[in-house]
Every structure is written in C-alpha cells, then in structure tokens.
Amino acid sequence: MPTLSDFERARTERLWDGVSLWCDRRSQGGIYLVGYHAEITLKMAYFRWKGFLSHQVIDLPQMNLARANAKRLGIITPRESYHIHHINKAMVAANWIDLNYPRLFS
After folding, report:
1. Element spanning 27, H or E
2. CA 14, chain centre distance (Å)
3. Which residues, at least 6 apart from 104, have a Cβ–Cβ distance to it below 8 Å?
4. What is the pTM of this model?
5. What is the per-residue pLDDT across 32-86, written as a single tens digit (0 to 9) for each?
6. Helix (H, G, I), strand (E, B) or coil at 86
7. Which residue in 68, 76, 72, 79 sits closest to 97, CA to CA?
8. Residues 6+ apart with CB under 8 A from 90
C-alpha cells in the first residue's frame, strides 16, 4: 500500500518524466504527466492537512473517508473520480474554507 512518502516520490518522478518528454518534443505525454504531478500534489496536500505522516498508508479506506469528507463539504465526487484534478482542488479549497481561512481558489 502506498504511503505519503511513496506519493512524494511518484510526484517528483512524474514531473521529471513530463519535463523529459516535453524536451524530447513529445508534448502531449509531457503535459499529461505534469498534470498528473499536479493531481498528486493536491492529493498530498489534502492528506497532509488531515494530519497524515510520511509513513502512513493511503489506501482505499482512506480515499473513501476523503470522499465522505467531500460529501460533507458539498463536493460531488463521481465514483471513478479519484483522479480528477478539479475534485482534488475542490477538496483542498473546501477544507481551507472549512477552517475559516481566506479563499485561494475561485
């Protein structure tokens, strides 16, 4: 099962994989992988906000808890959307607002 540290390593690898493809003039693959880097970054931000430590496992039950939190905050998450960027952004933003911090995203 992946830990927060595993997500960090994957995030860094996807960024450099994407940059490498972009430099090789394979922009579509590069854009996809840099987007995946952004997705992992948002996912990590959510779990860090929830107090996860580097060695803690992020598995399906944890993802389901995140989905339940999203529902509580009024964010609709279709079943297959663990990997959709706007859902991850909305989760970070809603938790930020739930903690009474100023809005960063529109």
Report:
1. helix 27-49
2. 13
3. 93, 96
4. 0.68
5. 888 888 888 888 888 998 899 999 999 889 988 888 888 888 877 666 555 555 5
6. helix
7. 72
8. 70, 75, 105
How far is 79 from 106, CA to CA, in rounded Å?
A: 24
Question: 3 in helix, strand or coil?
Answer: strand
Cα 70 to chain centroid distance, Å, stands at 13
Query: Distances from the Cα of 42 to the Cαs of 21, 26, 48, in angstroms?
Result: 22, 25, 10
Tens of pLDDT, residue by residue over 17-28, are: 999 998 998 988
* Number of Cβ within a 10 Å radius of residue 82: 16
